[in-house]
Amino acid sequence: MDAQRQSGNSDPSRSSNPTPASQNLPQGNQHQPLNVNPLTGLTSASALDYHPLSAKQRWYLYWKQNYWSVGAYLGPFLTALMPDQATNSPEQWGGGLPGYGRRLGSRTASGIVQGTFQASIAAVMHEDVRYIASAPKGFKERALHAIAYSFLTYNNQGHAVVNIANLSSFYAATAISTTWLPGRSRGAKYILSDGTMQIGLSIPLNLLQEFWPDIRYKLLHRPEPATVPTKNPKVRD
Questions:
Q1: 160 CB contacts (<8 Å, ≥6 apart)?
Q2: pLDDT score recorded for residue 104
Q3: Are the beta carbons of 122 and 128 closer than 8 angstroms?
């Protein structure tokens, strides 16, 4: 009887099958910074101290990454210049400033569509829209991590998963852009090639994002801002 009584009153915290720590991750830690890199348009989350985004923080990042940051427009500006303007694509838009203006408008609109698709699908599938920065390791390990996380992200449990929201959003945005693009830039071949090109361009962006703290420190002599507990996350460009 005593043994049964002790068994019935045992402390659940001493169970032989404890709940994995990844299943108890606090949602929307207000201490995590939500800074948008002005060069990449990306926000980072640390793999060492990962906290999933709350619904409010997802909305905040959606607006910041797609409308209210330098990075939201620098990417379209460069893509419209290289390769679009350099290759005169689409040729019907011609060259010079008028042609570049059309390409810039197209890439900006396509970027907003891509960000909207990504944010929506990521919320449904519980995927993180941020770049997951690696744990401190050597250059090779960090570079390989940045390449891998061009195709991976974390879910709300802090597990690495295929970044379906991000990958599919590039093709979806390209498909929608064909509704206003002229000529040959309207078929499945263009959707496949342009979507794949944009995924490829995300690799150097992730590499830059991974090593951005080192660049800030060594070249600009500006360390990453310290995390300060606040009720509302502060975002710096």
A1: 132, 152, 153, 154
A2: 97
A3: yes
- Which residues share a beta bridge with 162? 152
Q: Are 100 and 81 in contact (CB under 8 A)?
A: yes
Burial of 213: CB neighbours in 10 Å, binned 0-12, 13-18, 19+: middle
Q: What is the pLDDT of residue 135?
A: 85
Residue 127: the pLDDT is: 98
Domain boundaries, the chain: 44-218
Q: How many CB atoms lie within 10 A of CB 138?
A: 8
Convert the pLDDT of each residue in 93-117 to its tens digit. Answer: 999 999 999 999 999 999 999 999 9
Cα angle at 144 between 32 and 146, to 5 degrees?
35
For the record, the structure tokens of 214 come out as: 């080192």
Cα separation of 220 and 222, whole Å?
5
Give residue 36's region: left, alpha or beta (phi > 0; psi -120 to 50): beta
